[in-house]
Write a structure and sequence with these properties.
The protein starts with a helix and ends with a strand. Strands 7-9-1-2-11-10-16 form a 7-stranded antiparallel beta sheet, with no helix packed on it. The chain has a 5-stranded antiparallel beta sheet with strand order 8-12-13-14-15, with no helix packed on it. It is built from 2 helices and 16 strands. It is 9% helix and 37% strand. The longest helix is centred in the N-terminal third of the chain and has 18 residues. With 251 residues, it is mainly beta.
Length: 251
Amino acid sequence: MNKFILTTFILINFIVLNCCLGYTVPQLYANFIPYQNEECTGDSVGVGLSISVGPCITNIGSIVGSNFEVKSTSTFSLFVNALRVGIFQYDNVENGDQCFGRDYSEFYTFKNGTCTLTPPFLTAGNSLISNGTIVNNGLALNKQYSLFSISKKPFFGLPTDSINTQVYTQYNNENPNNCSLSNHLYSMYFTNNLEINFNNNNNDKENNYSITYSCDSNNQPIQNICNNNNQCNTEEVPLDCSNSQSIYCIS
Protein backbone atom coordinates (compact mmCIF):
# COMPACT_ATOMS: atom_id res chain seq x y z
CA MET A 1 0.00 0.00 0.00
CA ASN A 2 1.56 3.29 -1.05
CA LYS A 3 2.01 6.22 1.34
CA PHE A 4 -0.86 8.31 -0.02
CA ILE A 5 -3.43 5.51 0.20
CA LEU A 6 -2.32 4.49 3.69
CA THR A 7 -2.36 8.09 4.95
CA THR A 8 -5.81 8.72 3.47
CA PHE A 9 -7.20 5.50 4.95
CA ILE A 10 -5.94 6.31 8.45
CA LEU A 11 -7.21 9.90 8.29
CA ILE A 12 -10.67 8.82 7.12
CA ASN A 13 -10.95 6.35 9.98
CA PHE A 14 -9.82 9.00 12.46
CA ILE A 15 -12.35 11.57 11.18
CA VAL A 16 -15.22 9.05 11.14
CA LEU A 17 -14.55 8.02 14.74
CA ASN A 18 -14.35 11.60 15.99
CA CYS A 19 -16.85 13.50 13.89
CA CYS A 20 -19.39 11.19 12.34
CA LEU A 21 -19.82 8.77 15.24
CA GLY A 22 -19.47 11.42 17.92
CA TYR A 23 -16.66 9.50 19.61
CA THR A 24 -14.48 11.59 21.92
CA VAL A 25 -10.85 10.52 21.82
CA PRO A 26 -9.08 10.88 25.21
CA GLN A 27 -5.74 12.69 25.33
CA LEU A 28 -3.05 10.20 24.41
CA TYR A 29 0.74 10.31 24.34
CA ALA A 30 3.17 8.74 21.88
CA ASN A 31 6.24 7.49 23.71
CA PHE A 32 9.67 6.75 22.28
CA ILE A 33 11.85 4.84 24.78
CA PRO A 34 15.49 5.10 23.63
CA TYR A 35 17.87 2.24 22.82
CA GLN A 36 21.25 1.93 21.13
CA ASN A 37 20.41 -1.11 19.00
CA GLU A 38 17.79 -2.06 16.43
CA GLU A 39 16.30 -4.80 18.63
CA CYS A 40 15.63 -2.39 21.55
CA THR A 41 17.24 -4.85 23.96
CA GLY A 42 19.39 -4.31 27.04
CA ASP A 43 19.36 -1.11 29.04
CA SER A 44 17.40 1.87 27.81
CA VAL A 45 20.01 4.54 26.93
CA GLY A 46 19.58 7.81 25.06
CA VAL A 47 17.11 10.66 24.66
CA GLY A 48 13.49 9.61 25.10
CA LEU A 49 10.32 11.45 24.12
CA SER A 50 6.69 11.56 25.17
CA ILE A 51 4.62 13.64 22.74
CA SER A 52 0.99 14.76 23.04
CA VAL A 53 -1.19 13.44 20.25
CA GLY A 54 -3.06 16.15 18.33
CA PRO A 55 -1.24 19.52 18.53
CA CYS A 56 0.88 21.02 15.77
CA ILE A 57 4.32 21.15 17.46
CA THR A 58 7.34 23.15 16.23
CA ASN A 59 10.98 23.07 17.40
CA ILE A 60 10.76 19.88 19.41
CA GLY A 61 13.78 19.59 21.68
CA SER A 62 14.88 23.09 22.68
CA ILE A 63 16.77 22.51 25.93
CA VAL A 64 16.23 25.06 28.68
CA GLY A 65 19.07 25.81 31.11
CA SER A 66 21.88 25.11 28.68
CA ASN A 67 23.95 27.18 26.28
CA PHE A 68 23.24 24.62 23.58
CA GLU A 69 20.13 23.30 21.90
CA VAL A 70 19.12 19.95 20.46
CA LYS A 71 16.09 20.62 18.33
CA SER A 72 14.48 20.04 14.99
CA THR A 73 13.54 22.87 12.65
CA SER A 74 10.56 20.86 11.37
CA THR A 75 7.00 20.73 12.67
CA PHE A 76 5.18 17.53 13.63
CA SER A 77 1.62 16.46 14.34
CA LEU A 78 0.55 13.05 15.61
CA PHE A 79 -2.70 11.11 15.68
CA VAL A 80 -3.67 7.66 16.91
CA ASN A 81 -5.90 5.10 15.22
CA ALA A 82 -6.49 1.97 17.29
CA LEU A 83 -2.99 0.80 18.36
CA ARG A 84 -1.12 2.68 15.64
CA VAL A 85 0.25 6.23 15.55
CA GLY A 86 0.53 8.41 12.46
CA ILE A 87 3.17 11.16 12.37
CA PHE A 88 3.19 14.00 9.85
CA GLN A 89 6.37 16.02 9.35
CA TYR A 90 6.14 19.53 7.86
CA ASP A 91 9.11 21.65 6.83
CA ASN A 92 7.47 25.01 6.11
CA VAL A 93 5.14 25.77 9.01
CA GLU A 94 5.60 28.98 10.97
CA ASN A 95 4.99 29.20 14.72
CA GLY A 96 1.28 29.51 15.40
CA ASP A 97 0.20 28.06 12.06
CA GLN A 98 -1.97 24.97 11.86
CA CYS A 99 -0.71 21.73 10.34
CA PHE A 100 -4.01 20.31 9.09
CA GLY A 101 -4.54 20.69 5.36
CA ARG A 102 -0.89 21.45 4.57
CA ASP A 103 1.43 19.48 2.36
CA TYR A 104 3.65 17.29 4.51
CA SER A 105 7.22 16.28 3.72
CA GLU A 106 7.26 12.89 5.49
CA PHE A 107 4.78 10.49 7.02
CA TYR A 108 5.57 7.77 9.58
CA THR A 109 3.35 5.15 11.15
CA PHE A 110 4.14 2.69 13.94
CA LYS A 111 2.25 -0.02 15.78
CA ASN A 112 2.22 -0.06 19.58
CA GLY A 113 5.18 -2.10 20.86
CA THR A 114 7.33 -1.67 17.76
CA CYS A 115 11.11 -1.14 17.91
CA THR A 116 11.90 1.47 15.28
CA LEU A 117 14.46 3.98 14.12
CA THR A 118 13.41 7.11 16.00
CA PRO A 119 11.67 9.69 13.77
CA PRO A 120 13.74 12.89 13.35
CA PHE A 121 11.96 14.85 16.08
CA LEU A 122 15.29 16.27 17.32
CA THR A 123 17.34 16.19 14.15
CA ALA A 124 15.34 17.26 11.08
CA GLY A 125 16.99 20.30 9.50
CA ASN A 126 19.53 20.57 12.34
CA SER A 127 23.06 20.79 10.91
CA LEU A 128 24.58 20.46 14.39
CA ILE A 129 23.02 17.03 14.82
CA SER A 130 23.84 15.98 11.26
CA ASN A 131 27.52 16.76 11.79
CA GLY A 132 28.18 14.01 14.29
CA THR A 133 26.36 14.56 17.59
CA ILE A 134 26.46 11.19 19.33
CA VAL A 135 25.54 9.45 22.55
CA ASN A 136 28.80 8.59 24.31
CA ASN A 137 29.71 4.95 23.52
CA GLY A 138 26.55 4.77 21.42
CA LEU A 139 24.95 5.85 18.18
CA ALA A 140 24.64 9.21 16.48
CA LEU A 141 21.63 11.14 17.78
CA ASN A 142 19.99 10.98 14.36
CA LYS A 143 20.33 7.16 14.33
CA GLN A 144 18.77 6.26 17.68
CA TYR A 145 16.23 3.46 18.06
CA SER A 146 13.09 3.59 20.17
CA LEU A 147 10.54 1.19 21.58
CA PHE A 148 7.25 2.87 20.69
CA SER A 149 4.19 2.85 22.95
CA ILE A 150 0.88 4.69 23.42
CA SER A 151 -0.26 5.77 26.88
CA LYS A 152 -2.80 7.94 28.68
CA LYS A 153 -0.06 9.77 30.61
CA PRO A 154 3.41 10.96 29.54
CA PHE A 155 5.76 8.01 29.99
CA PHE A 156 9.48 8.30 30.67
CA GLY A 157 10.58 4.69 30.45
CA LEU A 158 11.98 4.54 33.96
CA PRO A 159 13.93 1.37 34.74
CA THR A 160 12.71 -0.91 37.51
CA ASP A 161 15.33 0.36 39.95
CA SER A 162 14.01 3.95 39.57
CA ILE A 163 17.30 5.67 38.80
CA ASN A 164 16.80 9.44 38.71
CA THR A 165 15.89 10.76 35.28
CA GLN A 166 16.11 14.35 34.03
CA VAL A 167 13.01 15.48 32.14
CA TYR A 168 12.43 18.59 30.04
CA THR A 169 8.81 19.48 29.27
CA GLN A 170 7.44 22.04 26.83
CA TYR A 171 3.93 23.39 27.38
CA ASN A 172 1.65 25.30 25.05
CA ASN A 173 2.84 28.93 25.16
CA GLU A 174 -0.63 30.16 24.23
CA ASN A 175 -1.27 29.70 27.96
CA PRO A 176 1.92 31.23 29.42
CA ASN A 177 3.42 29.63 32.51
CA ASN A 178 0.68 27.03 32.70
CA CYS A 179 2.74 23.92 33.40
CA SER A 180 -0.17 21.57 33.95
CA LEU A 181 -0.67 18.27 32.17
CA SER A 182 -3.62 19.69 30.23
CA ASN A 183 -1.21 22.17 28.61
CA HIS A 184 1.50 19.58 27.79
CA LEU A 185 3.01 19.48 24.29
CA TYR A 186 5.96 17.13 24.70
CA SER A 187 8.56 15.89 27.13
CA MET A 188 12.07 14.72 26.39
CA TYR A 189 14.14 12.87 28.94
CA PHE A 190 17.73 11.79 29.40
CA THR A 191 18.58 8.39 30.81
CA ASN A 192 20.67 8.66 33.96
CA ASN A 193 24.13 10.23 33.43
CA LEU A 194 23.65 10.34 29.69
CA GLU A 195 26.58 12.02 27.94
CA ILE A 196 26.06 13.60 24.53
CA ASN A 197 29.11 14.60 22.46
CA PHE A 198 28.52 17.65 20.26
CA ASN A 199 31.05 17.37 17.46
CA ASN A 200 29.89 20.56 15.80
CA ASN A 201 33.07 21.25 13.86
CA ASN A 202 35.21 18.29 12.91
CA ASN A 203 37.87 20.61 11.50
CA ASP A 204 38.18 22.56 14.74
CA LYS A 205 38.24 20.22 17.72
CA GLU A 206 38.45 23.17 20.10
CA ASN A 207 34.79 23.89 19.41
CA ASN A 208 33.63 20.40 20.33
CA TYR A 209 32.11 19.73 23.74
CA SER A 210 29.99 17.28 25.72
CA ILE A 211 27.07 17.57 28.11
CA THR A 212 26.20 14.99 30.78
CA TYR A 213 22.62 15.11 32.06
CA SER A 214 21.95 13.87 35.58
CA CYS A 215 20.24 14.53 38.92
CA ASP A 216 22.08 15.29 42.16
CA SER A 217 21.37 13.89 45.64
CA ASN A 218 18.66 16.54 46.14
CA ASN A 219 16.93 15.53 42.90
CA GLN A 220 18.09 18.79 41.30
CA PRO A 221 18.72 18.54 37.53
CA ILE A 222 22.31 19.34 36.58
CA GLN A 223 24.28 19.53 33.34
CA ASN A 224 28.03 18.95 33.31
CA ILE A 225 29.49 20.76 30.28
CA CYS A 226 33.03 19.88 29.17
CA ASN A 227 35.13 21.23 26.32
CA ASN A 228 37.69 19.32 24.29
CA ASN A 229 40.40 20.11 26.88
CA ASN A 230 38.40 18.38 29.63
CA GLN A 231 37.62 21.71 31.27
CA CYS A 232 34.21 21.20 32.82
CA ASN A 233 31.53 23.34 34.38
CA THR A 234 28.52 21.98 36.26
CA GLU A 235 25.32 23.98 35.95
CA GLU A 236 22.20 23.61 38.05
CA VAL A 237 19.07 23.88 35.96
CA PRO A 238 16.14 25.99 37.21
CA LEU A 239 13.15 23.97 38.39
CA ASP A 240 10.47 26.64 38.16
CA CYS A 241 7.92 26.89 35.38
CA SER A 242 8.98 29.75 33.11
CA ASN A 243 8.28 30.55 29.47
CA SER A 244 5.98 27.50 29.42
CA GLN A 245 8.99 25.24 29.95
CA SER A 246 10.40 23.26 32.85
CA ILE A 247 13.20 20.84 33.69
CA TYR A 248 12.88 18.49 36.63
CA CYS A 249 14.02 15.15 37.98
CA ILE A 250 11.82 12.15 38.66
CA SER A 251 12.62 8.81 40.22
